[in-house]
# Entry
Amino acid sequence: MSLQTRQEESYAFFQQKLPELLTDPLKSRKYAVIFNSTIEGVYDTFETAYREACIKFSADFIVQQIIDEHKIVNYLSPAVASC
# Structure
């Protein structure tokens, strides 16, 4: 199984668990490390989650913020003042 396939499976697992995670105020808005379709840890910052995942796993992990995707604001470059 390819790295991309394993990561896609872990992301699908995260999406399935997201509604449950959002109901936990101790996890909501934090960052989850997912490895082999298992939540291996929840961290306050992306940097901490990523660092811990790099120490524990080689490359098959993903880091996802526990946030309702409908509340994510995306900014397109034309909508923001020029860089």
